[in-house]
Amino acid sequence: MIALLPFAWLLAFIAAPAAILLAIALATPVEAVPPFALGWNTEPLALALTDPLYHAALWGSLRMAALTAGLCLVLGYPMAIAIARAPSHCRPVLRALVLLPLLTGVLLRLTAWIAILRDEGYLNAALLALGLTDAPLHLLHTEGAMLVGLAYVYLPFMILPIEARLSAADPRLEQAAADLGAPPWRVFRHVTLPLSLPGVLAGIVLVAVPVSGEVIVPALLGAPENLTLGRVIWDAFFQERDWPQAAALAVILLALVLLPSRWAKP
Amino acid sequence: MRTGALLFGYAFLYAPIALLVLGSFNDSRLTTAWSGFSLRWYRALLADEALREAAWLSLRIAAISATGATILGTMAGLALARLGRFPGRTGFTALLAAPLVLPDLLLGLALLLLFVLLERTLGWPGRGAGTVMLAQITIGIAYVAFTVRARLAGGGTLLEQAAADLGAPPLTVLRRITLPLLAPALAAGWGLAFVLSLDDVVVASFVSGPGATTLPMLMFSTLRLGPTPVLNALATVLLALTLLMGWAAWRWRPVAGGKARH
Fold it and tell me: Among A159, B221, B247, B262, which residue has the fewest nearby CB atoms (within 10 Å)?
């Protein structure tokens, strides 16, 4: 009984919409309200897979997801090690400090980054004051700004699974390797790194999956010419009002995110 | 070296937020020139009718969504923790986890298509605050359910059995034993759903209708045009609100091992 109501709700608001999305991806666009006629029309799907613009968007999303995951890994791995090696009574606080920014809204954090990166922002003011540049650099609305913003938003999702793996590992393994004469980098390469790999994989999935469908960060920090799946879906839906095309692109994105999700165990 | 990694990491996470708060108290319109402490942007914030309306709408939507998500999510979490293997459990868990995994864009688009079809065939629901709530309840359920399950996994069954053995009917066990045990998880789940709702731009942009512009939607469109000091002040107010809720969740967090705290 207690399972029935939430189950029914999820069927109505998760399963049914997913089915409708598939149905509309196969519909024909028409000039009407709503702008589609159900049927069996594979053209939007075929176009989503072949059109150069949509190809560029697909690659743009994959590139954005891969680069963000890489950046988060570079920034997050040293932090994960440091937290895992901290005295055990400090760890809950250090973990909470990693989680806390997640509770502050994404928009709020992006507001902060816009203030830092814009032409008359903090970073340019600092660079000018230090004499490192003569004129303000154009930092906002570039791919770099977008990647920094994405890494900022998604960093906790990389740190926490790696840190969990490293904290759970037996510290005696590393000690044994060191006692047996392995230099620090060999201990890292043959003990620490393999122990943390499942956490790294989980972190990569937890970052790359949502980033591949991200719209807010690219819209606020990214360059206008950077195409992503999120953007072409948004534009196909809101600007062109081509619902079957938007749904077909969404189906591609859905397939893209469902594949790796099976590897990450929550 | 480790301390260096920590210092750098936390500086990266917190410096932007600190600059944002600082900027909101700056009298100057230029973010980088400090011309004195001032509350003028907070006054401007209070005077902004559109922002006030959007904030009030968002707070109502968030409170109702969080409450709905807490009710349904608690039921789902109880089912996962206490029912064992029931038919459809795998599918149930997959549907439950979907909003945690899927990009908001997909959820928003799929839900909008559902609402449009429903409206065409049944004449219900008209798009607006109501559809935003339905969508955000759906997203919040998972967060509440997994918080509740984590809390229940630790313990409580013995107490429930004891109560049942002493003759308490199931509903009394639920009311007197299970729900009090769950209270911290319910508070944390409600808070999480509330905060998520207050931060949601993408799903709301899809499913909302004319006349129902939520605060995040308004912030997003303003940010696209360029940041204003008023937005810094608004962000600082929201930050204070979430910190307060985060502190409350931390204070009454589910303790590892599942022991009830009194």
Answer: B262
Separation CA B79–CA B81 (nearest Å): 6
A28 - beta bridge partners? A37
Check CB contact under 8 Å for A106 and B17: no
User: Within chain A, which residues score under 50 in pLDDT?
Assistant: 266
Domain range enclosing A266: 20-50+228-266
A114 found inside a domain: yes
Tens of pLDDT along B208-246? 988 889 999 999 999 988 778 888 899 899 889 888 877
pLDDT over 60 at B254, yes or no: no
Query: Looking at CA atoms only, how far is residue A236 from chain B in angstroms?
Result: 11
Average pLDDT, chain B: 86
Q: Compute the distance between CA of residue B44 and CA of residue A28 in angstroms, rounded to an integer.
A: 49
B227–chain A nearest CA distance, Å = 7
Number of folded domains in chain A?
2
**Structural domain tally of chain B?**
1
Residue A60 lies in a domain: no
Residue of B nearest to A125 (CA): B32
A220·B220 Cβ contact <8 A: yes
Cβ separation B141–A10 shorter than 8 A: yes
Would you state the pLDDT for residue B32? 67
* Percent of chain A's residues with pLDDT above 70: 97
Residues of A in contact with B103 (CB under 8 A): 209-210, 212-214, 230, 253, 257
pLDDT at residue A266 in the model: 44
Closest CA to A192 of A156, A158, A162: A162
